[in-house]
Fold this sequence. Notes:
With 303 residues, the chain is α+β, with helices and mostly antiparallel strands. The chain folds into two domains: 2-81 and 119-302, Bira Bifunctional Protein, Domain 2 (BirA Bifunctional Protein, domain 2), CATH 3.30.930; 84-116, no CATH class. 39% of the residues lie in helices and 24% in strands. It is built from eleven helices and twelve strands. The strands form three sheets. The protein has a seven-stranded mixed sheet. It has a three-stranded antiparallel sheet with strand order 4-6-5. Strands 1-2 form a two-stranded antiparallel ribbon. Helix 2 packs across helix 10 (275-286). The radius of gyration is 21 Å and the shape is globular. The model has no long low-confidence stretch (mean pLDDT 94). This is Amino acid--[acyl-carrier-protein] ligase. InterPro entries: aa-tRNA-synth_II/BPL/LPL.
Amino acid sequence: xxxxxxxxxxxxFSEGVLYDSGVDGLYARSGEFEEVISRFxxxxxxxxxxxxxxxxxxxxxMTMQNFETSGYMKSFPQLAGTVHAFCGxxxxxxxxxxxxxAGDDWSKHQKPTQVALTxxxxxxxxxxxxxRGPLGEDGAYVALQSYCFRHEPSRDPARMQMFRMREYVxxxxxxxxxxxxxxxxxxxxxxxxxxxxxxxxxxxxxxxFGRAGKIMASGQREQELKFEMLxxxxxxxxxxxxMSFNYHMDNFGKVWDIRxxxxxxxxxxxxxxxxxxxxxxxxxHHGFDTARWPEGVRSALWG
Length: 303
């Protein structure tokens, strides 16, 4: 499997689709790669465009307070990243420069800031919804996009450390959010057919950490809270999750104090599109020359 991963990554480098940075999972992207992502976003936003109540784009960082409130460190400490910065005086600066000159670890001169790297595109949305007070009868239906960070360096090009997620998020009643998720599972299938990508949907779980995480992962699968759209990219045997369809029940409603119109904790659900992964899937199955992609695919993306 690793040989296949390295082979595809090397092809992406040699074809000028991605550019090596020297750090696994951190790559520069070509203009053509970015155009495919832009075309896919337009394609994805053509679904459900009349249903959304608003759209937002988030920066790659979120407040440390909101990051801690999310509970991410309880479940995924192995993936988290935080922003540190130099906060010292002239004397401290001299010490930092001496460390660098000596080839020593200079990170001890850095201190935590109030910023964490965003691990999931929907996380910054929930405190915004909470501050607005109770939702209306129709709830909220938000299209959003964000760069995300997860610390899992890999030679698998589909497992980047910094990547973008396009999401639709639904907040409201259990019935509204469950109907939203089921609708998007069907739409996801239609999207993959139009893009002529091999795919299947399967129940899944998040990568919860540690012994307790195994119990949480098992519960998530048993309750069928998470489904993924799997597409072969670097492996036929272990296809990559390119979309996810998630029902959070009222967990985030309770954590963030998001209320339905009747005062009950809101239920939430989201559908996420891994933009880099979907672009990679298209290059993997249709070749590196986008002008020679199948007519149906080009029609879906270029119109």
